[in-house]
Design a protein that fits this description.
The protein has 3 domains: 179 residues, Growth Hormone, Chain: A (Up-down Bundle); 55 residues; 241 residues, MFS general substrate transporter like domains (Growth Hormone, Chain: A, Up-down Bundle), CATH 1.20.1250. The longest helix has 39 residues. The protein has 20 helices and 2 strands. By secondary structure, the protein is mainly α. It is globular. Strands 1-2 form a two-stranded antiparallel ribbon.
């Protein structure tokens, strides 16, 4: 595992010169499986749907969960605990899938997700529910990376955009159906059915994968000792970092002892991980992930994607309800406009990168995303509803053009024995970028609102940020002038958030143009698949 690009890679190979050939060619370190059966592809989509649908459904039932179990002060950890567990285990599962194969890791992930869902449905208080959601997240981390890796294993390069577009469509469908389904379950049944719904779906995926998935035959002698010390170090370093980002500015100030202590401990564990990984025969986080230009550039660009996604996914619903005056359902539809255009753009992206290459296609997509994000700051107050909807539609199209070429391209620069680690590193960086984005852009929004409240020209407004959410939930209790001023303050915070997302998109474009090679070093055996 040297510091250069993959051995045998063609430095000028790119998608434009890669015809779609029949499956069955040899990959690096493994013989490729036969063309995947429909049942296996359906199981992969079902597995991805479990992860995608889960968060969308659970978010709609929070009031019912809190009403039954209590724990309002910590309910956000229903989501944060899951995300933290899924993110920090991604590198571990990626390496394990390269060592022992995708199938056992995927079966383990589905089993943990199924067990976590069952225990969540039986939770007796908020602490138990959070603990079981963390267990569910341990399974979700295995599902996220392994499904994406298997999609690359099973499909030849020319056909990978099709399966990736299907995965994007699964996420889009889940974003649309999740809130409605969760609302129906919460309204007409017990919230516990939200988790029980996962059981038959997970069981079906488990049975299909066990029965129908046949992995490639690997040569003997490839397995080394598992780097458990590195795995624990990665878990501790990532867990402390994400915990600091989630709680900083919420449970305690950013410059307080808890934040500084957690960040310092994370840095210390990071230094320890570097030392451990340099000595490990088969490190969980091998150095080549960052020494190879292509993979490092894609990782940084995907971290930028995670950061900029905070603006449309986290802030847009608040903007739609507060500034535009829409109800929760209508506000969700504004956000979901992005998920409609994303899979369509992803499906068409191959026609672009076959002509101009992976890097240039992704750079074009994220540059367009930067312009679209900036256009939000130019909206009038109050904006007609069709304008933010149009922005979200265009943004989804740009991001589909950005993300898919990077995933397909970077997976094609490595062989079977490195693909799990590579895919996991990309997803890990995206998730960490999203956590950093939530912390940074949340701080920007809070600073803007605090400044506007301090300079308020009329009485009646909340004196502290803690009172803003209550005032926004019942704007009729405020004088009209005060309510309008508060809505304008939220709109100003939105402008600053989208401006920050614009900077993240522009930075991703620069990373690709300055770091990534003009043509990805696609392996010869990948080009000939």
């Amino acid at each position: 595992m040297g510091s250069g690009e993959s051995t045998g890679a063609s430095t000028d190979g790119d998608a434009g010169s890669m015809p779609c050939a029949e499956a069955g060619a040899k990959d690096a370190g493994a013989s490729a499986p036969a063309r995947p059966r429909t049942a296996v592809v359906a199981a992969l989509m079902l597995t991805m749907g479990l992860v995608a649908l889960d968060g969308a459904i659970v978010s709609t039932a929070v009031p019912q969960i809190v009403g039954d179990l209590g724990g309002f002060a910590v309910f956000s950890w229903i989501f944060s605990g899951y995300i933290l567990a899924a993110t920090v285990t991604l590198p571990v599962y990626g390496k394990l899938s390269d060592t022992y194969g995708r199938k056992p890791v995927l079966l383990l992930g589905i089993s943990l997700f199924l067990l976590g869902s069952l225990l969540c449905a039986a939770a007796w208080n908020m602490a138990a529910l959070i603990a079981f959601r963390i267990l569910q997240g341990l399974g979700g981390g295995a599902l996220q990376g392994t499904v994406q890796t298997l999609a690359a294993d099973l499909y030849p390069l020319g056909e990978r955009p099709r399966i990736q577009a299907r995965m994007s469509a699964v996420w889009a469908g889940s974003a649309l159906a999740g809130p409605a389904l969760g609302g129906l379950i919460a309204s007409y049944t017990d919230w516990r059915w939200i988790f029980l719904l996962n059981l038959p779906l997970a069981a079906a995926a488990l049975w299909i994968i066990t029965r129908h998935l046949a992995e490639p035959t690997r040569p003997p002698g490839r397995r080394g000792p598992v780097d458990w010390a590195g795995a624990l170090g990665v878990f501790a370093c990532g867990g402390l970092l994400l915990f600091a980002l989630v709680q900083g500015g919420v449970a305690w100030p950013w410059l307080s002892a808890p934040s500084l202590g957690l960040l310092g401990a994370s840095a210390a564990f990071g230094a320890l991980v570097v030392r451990i990984e340099r000595r490990a025969p088969e490190p969980i986080l091998p150095g080549w992930v960052w020494r190879r230009r292509t993979i490092a550039a894609v990782n940084l660009a995907m971290a930028g994607l995670g950061l900029l996604m905070v603006a449309p996914m986290v802030f847009m619903p608040t903007y739609a309800q507060t500034v535009l005056g829409l109800g929760p359902t209508s506000a969700g539809l504004v956000t979901s406009a992005m998920t409609l255009s994303w899979p369509i753009s992803a499906a068409l992206a191959q026609h672009v990168y076959r002509r101009i290459g992976f890097r240039n296609t992704a750079a074009t997509g994220v540059a367009l995303a930067a312009a679209i994000l900036f256009s939000f700051t130019l909206l009038p107050y109050p904006a007609p509803v069709w304008q933010p909807v149009l922005i979200m539609l265009l943004l989804g199209g740009a991001l589909g053009l950005f993300q898919l070429p990077l995933i397909v391209g970077v997976q094609s620069t490595v062989g079977w024995a490195e693909r799990g680690t590579t895919t996991a590193s990309v997803l890990f960086c995206r998730n960490v970028g999203q956590s950093i984005g939530a912390a940074l852009l949340g701080a920007v929004a809070n600073a803007t609102l605090a400044d506007r409240l301090a300079d308020a020209p009329m009485p009646g407004l909340p004196e502290h940020l803690d009172g803003v959410s209550e005032a926004l939930a019942a704007p009729g209790l405020l004088p009209e002038a005060a309510a309008d001023y508060l809505r304008r303050a939220v709109a100003a915070a939105g402008d600053h958030i989208f401006l920050g997302a614009t900077v993240a998109a522009a930075a991703s474009a620069l990373v690709l143009l300055l770091m990534a090679p003009r043509k990805f070093p696609v392996l010869p055996e990948q080009r000939g698949e």
